[in-house]
Design a protein that fits this description.
Length: 249
Amino acid sequence: MKFTVLGGSGLIGSQVVEQLTAAGHEVTAASLSTGVDVISGKGLKEVLAGADVVINLTNSPVFDETSIGFFETSMNNVVAAAEEAGLRHHVILSIVGLDEVPGLDYYRAKMLQEDILTSGPTPHSIVRATQFFEFVQAVLSMTTEGDVVRLPATPVQPMASADVVAAVVRTATGTPVQGIRNVAGPEMFHLDELGRVTLAARPDGRHVVTDADAGMFAVVPGDALLPPPDAQLAATRYGDWLEQQPPTG
C-alpha cells in the first residue's frame, strides 16, 4: 500500500513511517520541512497524489485557544485534498475522553478535528489514545515551583508512544473503522501518584504536593480521561518503560 504521513517527522509520525516502511509499504513522510503546509495547503495535493491512505498526525504548535483555528483550517484543507485524490482511508490520532473535557481549549480543538473528519466523504478512522509516557516530565514541569510539583489527583491511564504507533499502524493498514478506536496503557494512576512514581525513579530534588487546582488537568471532571470498556490495552507498564529510559542530565 502507499501511505502519506502528515506530520511524519514528529514523535509518533517518525515511528509510524519507520514501521510502515519496515513492513514493505511505500511511505511518504510529509511536514513543513519537506515543503508541505497543512495551513496554507501548499504541497498537499502533490503529496497525496497516488496514495491509498493518509495518516494525519499534524499538531498545533500551541495548546491554547488558537489551536482551534489550527485544526479547523488544517483539517478542512486535508479533507478536501484527500477527496480530490480519491483516498481510500484517512486516519487521525486523537485523545481518549476529549469530548468530556470542554474546559480545555486544546481538547475542544481536537474534537473539532474529529467532527471535520467524520463530516467528510473519505472513509476514516479515529485512534483515540491516552496520555503518553514521554510527556509526563513536561506535565511535571508545568506545575513546578522551586522543589515543589503541584498536581491534581486526576485519574489517567497513560501509554508508551511505541504502543500508540502500533495502534495507528494497525488501524491504517486495516479496513476503515468509520468511528473511534480507543487505546490505553495497562495501568491506572492518579496524576499526583504518577508524579511521585516518576520522581522516585528519577530523583531531582523535587517532591509532589497534591493540589486539586494545579495545572491543565485540574479542569478534568472525574474519570473522563480513563479509557472506555472497549478500549484496547497496550502491554507496556510505566515502571518498565522508566527503567529503559537513559538517565537525564
